[in-house]
Amino acid sequence: MRVLLSFCIVGCLVVCCGVFQPAAIAADKITQPKEIPNKFEALKRFSQVLDLVERHYVHDVTQDDLVKGAVKGLLQGLDPHSTFMNADEYKEMQQTTSGEFFGVGIEISLENGQVIVVTPIEDTPAFRAGLQTGDVILSINGQATQELSLQEVVSRIRGPKGTEVELTIMHSGVKNPQTVHIVRDAIPLISVKSKKLEDGYYWMRLTRFSERTTEELKEAFRNAEKESVALGGIKGIVLDLRNNPGGLLDQAVSIADVFLRDGTIVSIKGRHGSSDHVYEAQRQSDDVHTPVVALINAGSASASEIVAGALRDQKRALIMGERSFGKGSVQKIIPLPDGSGLKLTVALYYTPSGSSIQAEGIVPDMEIALEAPQNTDDKDTERFQVREQDLNRHLENGKDKKSAQDKVKKEEGKDQLARDNQLRMALQVVKSLPKMQSIKN
Question: Which N-terminal stretch is annotated as signal sequence (predicted)?
Answer without folding.
Answer: 1-26
